[in-house]
Design a protein that fits this description.
By secondary structure, this protein is an alpha/beta fold. It folds into two domains: about 160 residues, Medium-chain alcohol dehydrogenases, catalytic domain (Quinone Oxidoreductase, Chain A, domain 1); about 140 residues, NAD(P)-binding Rossmann-like Domain (Rossmann fold, 3-Layer(aba) Sandwich), CATH 3.40.50. The strands form three sheets. Strands 3, 4, 5, 6, 7, 14 and 15 form a seven-stranded mixed β-sheet that branches. A six-stranded parallel β-sheet has the order 10-9-8-11-12-13, sandwiched between helices. α3 packs across α4.
Length: about 325
């Protein structure tokens, strides 16, 4: 099969690599589309290595068709159209994944839409519902509101009865946040962004923080009694002083959270929760991914450049065309 391989100089090339074999509790997917995440850019630079035993091929989500199932898999079958949360390997023609990390592709959805959903929905759910224990009526600040996770998080907060507030860097991105359901969208580059939020909505209950150090003092000031800050990114730096008196007197919780390196059992529980409690919102299109752009997998370099320059709103998707090897597989199967 072919896959995107990160070269020693950091370049991306579409090369022949060994096809993965399916484990007893896994399925093998013929990947039709995958989507970019910030983690891909970090891994490419050597700053976010895959967990032990995971392929070094980029890609944390995909959509496609099952072509093989392991001996212990009974709830999925060859030919099923699925999307999946992956520990890695999505930038390839084939990938294997544990069968309980799959979601069925809803009727009428394209492969590109389905590929843009798993990582963002899982990230938003684990951090807002599980870590922050969001409740109806609470006010939730979502940084990077026009990003892949942000656009899903705004919709999830609204659908679960809380109040989303977002930040974004351009007027067009702020309009998008408001169209998705944000009560307020402010420019994080403005020196008065904290004051704008406080004057409009008062104190916050939850901050979904992609920024880190640069905004920590403002977050501690904005958070209400028993507020929760869930840190999921470090776009604004990793080192900051912290006002411990604010944390103490307001009974704040500060949580660091990643998804990729969680144990498999936690990811399985998360996917089960989404399928049983939230998937109806996806099937009814009350939560949908925002697609910024679609690139051919061989143009992955251009797709990464778009994300690196923060030009995107929503998810950047990579489409993987059928190759001669895939067509040969079809002829052999028939």
């Amino acid at each position: 099969m072919k896959a995107i391989v990160v070269q020693p100089d950091g370049a991306l090339r579409w090369l022949d690599v060994p096809e993965p074999s399916v484990g007893s509790a896994e399925v093998k997917i013929r990947v039709r589309a995958t989507a970019l995440n910030r983690a891909d850019l970090l891994q490419r630079k050597g700053l976010y290595p895959p967990p032990p035993g995971v392929t070094d091929i980029l890609g944390l989500e995909c959509a496609g068709t099952i072509v093989d199932v392991g001996s212990k898999v009974h709830d999925w079958h060859v030919g099923d159209a699925v999307c999946a949360l992956l520990p890695g390997g999505g930038y390839a023609e084939f990938v294997t994944v544990h069968h309980q990390l799959l979601f069925p592709i809803p009727n009428g959805w394209s492969m590109e839409e389905a590929a843009a959903l798993p990582e963002a929905l899982c990230t938003a759910t684990v951090n807002l519902v599980k870590e922050a224990k969001m409740r109806r009526g609470e006010k939730v600040l979502i940084h990077s509101g026009a990003g892949g996770v942000g656009t899903i998080a705004i919709q999830l907060v609204r659908q679960l009865g809380a109040i989303p507030i977002a930040t974004a860097g351009t007027a067009a991105k702020r309009r998008l946040c408001e169209q998705l359901g944000a009560q307020l969208a402010v420019d994080y580059q403005s020196s008065s962004w904290r004051d704008q939020i406080q004057q409009a909505v008062g104190k916050l209950d939850i901050v979904l923080d992609t920024v880190g150090a640069a905004f920590l003092p403002q977050h501690l000031e904005l958070l209400n009694y028993r507020g929760r800050l869930v840190l999921i990114g470090l776009l604004g730096g990793r080192t900051a002083e912290i006002r411990l008196d604010q944390v103490l007197l307001k009974n704040l919780r500060i949580v660091g959270s990643t998804l990729r390196n969680r144990p498999l059992r936690e990811k399985i529980r998360l996917c089960r929760f989404i399928r049983s409690r939230l998937w109806h919102l996806v099937e009814n299109r009350r939560i949908v991914p925002v697609i910024d752009s679609v690139f051919d997998i061989r143009d992955a370099e251009a797709a990464h450049d778009r994300m690196r320059r923060n030009l995107h709103a929503g998810k950047i998707v990579l489409r993987i065309p059928e190759s001669s090897a895939t067509n040969e597989r079809k002829r052999n199967d028939s």
